[in-house]
Amino acid sequence: MRKSLDEIFERVESISKKLSVKAIEDAISDIKDKFSSNVFYLVVLGQFKRGKSTFTNYILGNDMLPTGVVPLTSVITKVQYSIDVWVKVLYEDGMIDNIDIKELDLYCTEKNNPQNIKK
Ligand SMILES: Nc1nc2c(ncn2[C@@H]2O[C@H](COP(=O)(O)OP(=O)(O)O)[C@@H](O)[C@H]2O)c(=O)[nH]1
Ligand SMILES: [Mg+2]
Fold this sequence. Notes:
Helices cover about 40% and strands about 5% of the residues. With about 120 residues, it is mainly alpha-helical.
């Protein structure tokens, strides 16, 4: 599948070059970069209290995301593979804090970070 996708990318790229369609050339270049980095996003979307965090914890095999009956996750929480457990808080102004997993709920819950006041 990887190989046939690579072939498709090559064909689309060569066609877009022949036709000089910059938008397609840029798009295919982006897709090729994403594809070669071996990273994809699985996005879990849904209304409050619908079990998104519970579902994500189940996939992870680890209860690292807080779950509960009141709306809990108030900010976008991104989980990625790693051997060690680490948590980074990314602030709107670009600042980054390294925190302990036990402190995660201080940032991503409505109770401890209402309306994302910590930004
Ligand atoms: N009955 C039932 N409750 C669930 C299920 N999944 C999650 N819950 C409960 O629903 C509540 C909200 O779950 P949570 O994962 O925090 O929801 P989120 O806001 O979508 O992330 C929690 O009390 C969970 O225990 C399910 O499949 N069935
Ligand atoms: Mg949640």
